[in-house]
Each structure stands twice: as structure tokens, then as C-alpha cells.
Amino acid sequence: MKKVVLIVLAILVILIIIAFIGLRSMMRGPDLSIYESLRQPRISTMASQRMLVVELKGDPNQVGGKAFGALFKTFYQLKGVPKGGPPPAPRARWPLPLDTPKGEWVGIYGMPIPATVEALPEKADPLVKIGTWDYGTVGEILHIGPYNKEAPTVERLMALISQNGYQVIGDHEEEYLRGPGMFGKGDPNKYYTIIRYRVTKSQPDTVTKDLPTK
Description:
The protein has 214 residues and is an alpha+beta fold. The chain has a single domain (2-201), classed as Multidrug-efflux Transporter 1 Regulator Bmrr, Chain A (Alpha-Beta Barrel), CATH 3.20.80. The protein contains three helices and nine strands. The chain has helices spanning 2-28, 60-75, 151-163, and strands at 42-46, 49-57, 91-94, 106-112, 129-133, 136-144, 166-168, 172-178, 192-201. Strands 1, 2, 3, 4, 5, 6, 7, 8 and 9 form a nine-stranded antiparallel sheet that branches.
């Protein structure tokens, strides 16, 4: 009997270790070193992306956790999605001017999913929908640091967009490579965020979309 109990305990310990390793793998997120070149703004092209989407109104500091929680929970309910590795970096689009009072912000929160996903699980969070985010030509840059210190980074990106004869046609988008974790905010000075805008070549006498900074 004692031997059986010891074997069961040993199996439980192994399962806990495996779960812990898997959790650490998920929390590490993507390899940030591959994004170092994005410290300099650039114009590039992106394919359209199938997404899980949650749209919520309110201060992101208050409703963002609810949105991302629903996205992550639903993501891991999807069939054919790897469960052991880090999930894709979540994103958010902000359609209103960024000087709008925070309580009135509309956040379109999203998480990339395979193009083969056609329907949500039966028990998916009712907040979550499936959609497609269009891209094409984009201007993007890596911001390292707190979200409320993005203004100089956005200015550098806007300067590049204008200097290369483009204008913004899409919402302010952020891709969160590293941000607040499961157990707290972490160090905001080490947050990694890709800031991105859809762009198109400017036409004569066309005014570039006015985008206030945070």
C-alpha cells in the first residue's frame, strides 16, 4: 500500500513539474531578440490575419484584463491550437483619437488564430467573436517602455511615414510582445510593444489623418 502511495505521489510531482515548465514557457512569450531591428521605424507589408476579437468600451486599465482574459481562455479551447508553447502576442486597435478621455475609449482587442479556424467552441466566452484584420502596407516601430511614454516613438514613426510619401489610413494598433504578466504589472520599463498603422501612398492635396499622441 505504501509503495502504491509513493508511486502516485511521484506521478503527481512529475505532472506538476511538467505543468510548471509549460506555464513558464507560455509566460516567456516570443523571442524578443528577433524584434530588435524594429527599434528603427519601417514600412513593410503584412497579410490579413484571422483573429479572435473582443470589443469593449472603457479605460483599458480597467477593462483590458477582462478582454485579454476572454481571448486567452477561448484561444486554448480551440481545436488544433498547440497547448504547450507560448501563445501568439495579443494586439489591440484604438479607433478613437488617443486624446479621448480614457473612460470613453473603445478597444478592439485581438489574438491571432490559424486561418483554418471557422467557428468558436460551444463554451466560448460570449464576448469573443471571430474576425479578420486587414493589413497590406504598414508603418511600424518597436516601443520599449511604459504605454504612457509612447508619444516620442509614435512621432518617429509618423515622420518616417510622411517622409516616404505615405499617409495613415488605419487605426492606431499595438502588438504586446511583453507587458503586464499573470501576477502583476512587472517592470513597465521593459514592456515591448509594436506600434503599427496601415498606410497608403499619399495623393496630391490629401491631408494626413490627424492622430493625437497619448
